[in-house]
Write a structure and sequence with these properties.
Number of domains: 2
CATH superfamily of the largest domain: Farnesyl Diphosphate Synthase
Number of helices: 16
Strand order of the largest sheet: 1-2
CATH architecture of the largest domain: Orthogonal Bundle
Structural class: mainly alpha
Order of helices and strands: HHHHEEHHHHHHHHHHHH
Distance between the termini: 27 Å
Helix content: over 70%
Largest sheet: 2 strands, antiparallel
CATH topology of the largest domain: Farnesyl Diphosphate Synthase
Length: 324
């Protein structure tokens, strides 16, 4: 099994050697800006790690892995427009820097580029790869629509929310892992298992993101703390708090979320305080642990050599212990 650092280097090197276009500048500059932000590039890393895990050659999976990363960043670019988010990974979002129209068009171009790279795969495997990618892309869009619907929907349950994040976040993580297995020509049964593992990992990962929005360190998280609270986003924490709050706490929670006269700083501080009173931080961490354990149980059911699994389990721990 190649080391995580070696695979990360392969991804960074591949992106550094690739030009996505130069003119018109206002189309391609936002794309370069988005893709040059670095980070762990988790999803392409999962493609390569899964390919390696099942005995494939990660170097032959690099282009499809890049396609997954370009697609992921396209979704972030458009999500930021919809959420009117000012920051992404500690930097100004594309629509803040270049304007909404430029951000929409650059995002559309990234969607095309994603397909170009995913299509650079073994012709024998291309039908399965495209079926997986198309299904995933559609589900991610469905998840985003549910997320937007929830903004005006009064009664959103925990089950509703978990369904939404499964589509919006978890399926792309699961796709990355199954894509690597397909490219390694793994047994279809194990390709499905690694997909299911990715779903549980993705659910835990998104719940961790929800948790960090309220209880993280803004200097490490890369986004302003309380962004979900400021926009009344119906996260796991929001839904669980309204499920548990009674009496004065429920009245105060409702006032903080819906009284437009309350300044954002006061609103965020007040709601986080109520979250702590209701032990929402502990409940969320427990739920993260539940999905982490489910992921581990699925992963252990795949007959892999123990010496090949250390990098993947280490990455899981890093993903769910992160502060950003």
């Amino acid at each position: 099994m190649r080391s995580l650092q070696s695979l990360q280097h392969s991804i960074s090197e591949a992106f550094s050697k690739t030009g996505f276009g130069h003119e018109p500048l206002r189309l391609y500059a936002p794309i370069s800006y988005t893709l040059d932000q670095g980070g762990k590039r988790l999803r392409p890393l999962l493609v390569l790690m899964s390919c390696d895990l099942f005995g494939g050659d990660p170097d032959r999976a690099i282009f499809p892995a890049m396609g997954v990363e370009i697609f992921h960043n396209f979704t972030l670019l458009h999500d930021d427009i919809m959420d009117n988010a000012p920051l992404r990974r500690g930097r100004s979002t594309v629509h803040q820097k270049w304007g909404t129209n430029a951000a929409i068009l650059s995002g559309d171009t990234m969607f095309v580029l994603a397909y170009e790279y995913v299509a650079k795969t073994d012709p024998e495997l291309l039908p399965r790869v495209l079926d997986l990618f198309n299904d995933t892309a559609r589900k991610v869009c469905e998840g985003q629509q549910y997320d937007m619907d929830f903004e005006t929907q009064k009664d959103v349950t925990i089950d509703d929310y978990m369904m939404m994040i499964r589509l919006k976040t978890a399926v792309l993580i699961a796709c990355s892992l199954k894509l690597g297995a397909i490219l390694a020509k793994a047994d279809p049964l194990y390709a499905e298992k690694i997909y299911d593992f990715g779903i549980e990992l993705g659910l835990a990962f998104q719940l961790q993101d929800d948790y960090l929005d309220a209880f993280g360190d803004s200097s490490k998280f890369g986004k302003a703390i309380g962004g979900d609270i400021a926009t009344n986003k119906k996260t796991f924490l929001y839904i669980k708090a309204f499920e548990l709050a009674r009496g004065d706490r429920r009245i105060n929670l409702t006032n903080y979320f819906f009284d437009k006269e309350i300044e954002n700083g006061e609103k965020i501080a007040g709601i986080i305080d109520i979250y702590r009173q209701l032990k929402i931080d502990e409940i969320t961490r427990h739920q993260i642990g539940v999905h982490h354990q489910k992921a581990m149980d699925i992963f252990r059911s795949i007959p892999l050599k123990p010496e090949t699994t250390a990098e993947m389990t280490g990455l899981m721990q890093e993903m769910l212990g992160r502060e950003r």
